[in-house]
Amino acid sequence: MQFxxxxxYIADKDLMVAVNAAIRLERPLLVKGEPGTGKTELARQIALxxxxxxxxxxxxxxxxxxxxxxxxxxxxxLRDSQLGDPRVNDIAHYIRRGKLWQAFAAGxxxxxxxxxxxxxxxxxxxxxxxxxxxxxxxxxxxxxxxxATVRPIVIxxxxxxxxxxxxxxxxxxxxxxxFPDQDTLERIVAVHYPGIKSSLLSAALTRFxxxxxxxxxxxxxxxxxxxxxxxxxxADDIDAEDLGADVKTALPRLHGALLKNEQDVHLFExxxxxxxRER
Length: 279
What we know:
Number of helices: 12
Distance between the termini: 62 Å
Shape: elongated
Strand order of the largest sheet: 2-5-8-1-9
Order of helices and strands: HEHEHEHEHEHHEEEHEHHHH
Strand content: 5-15%
C-alpha cells in the first residue's frame, strides 16, 4: 500500500515519504501547515489513491473527544420510558456511533481524518491517546469493547493555533507542509486550469508571490486563495499585461480573492498613495 500522489494533488517527495512511513508504522500522521495548503485534501487524495473509503471528523471548538467514540442519548431514553416504548429495554438503541467507532467497525482499512484538531480544547488530544494507540475503547453503558480488526490510516491536521501535548506528539508521525515555491504552485494551477495561458500564469504567480512577501501583511494569501484568484482572472479574460503593475503602486486586480482583511487592503492603498506622491 503505497501513496504516490494523484493526478489532482501535487505531493512532493517529502510528503509522500511521510504518508507512507505513517502507513508502515501504523501511526497517525499529524500534518501541519498554513491554512489553505491542502492538509484536508491530502486525506481525501490518500483515500482516492489507495481505493479506500474516508471517514471525516471535523473538529470544532465545542467538540469533545467522547463524541468521536459514541454519544449516549439519555434524554431520548427517558422520554421513551415515559411513553412506554419497548425499545427502552435495549440501551443500544440510544448509543450513537462516533467517527472513531465507525472507522474501527468498518471491517476493512479506511482513512480516518481528524480535521483541525487544534480547534478543540487543549485536553482533547490527550483524551484520545489510548484509543488511537490501542485502537479500542470501552462502552460503559453496554459493557462492550469496540476494537478495530483492521487499523485505519489516521490523518490528523492542525493549523498550529495551539500547541499539542508532547504525549500526543510522541504517538504521531509528523509532517509540515511548506508553502509551495513558484514552480510547484505552477504545477498545482496547471492541474486545476490546464488551458490557462502561460503568460497569464507566469504574471499571476509573480504578482501573487510579490503580495505574499509584502512587509507588514497581516494575512498572507494561501494556495487555495491563489487558485480562486486565478480562476477569476481566467473567467474575466484578464491579460497578463494588466497584472504587470508594481505591487507597491496599486491594489491587485480582483484583490478580494487574496486580501481578506481591511488592514491589508489599507496597507496597499497607503503604499499606492505614497508611490503616486513621489512621482
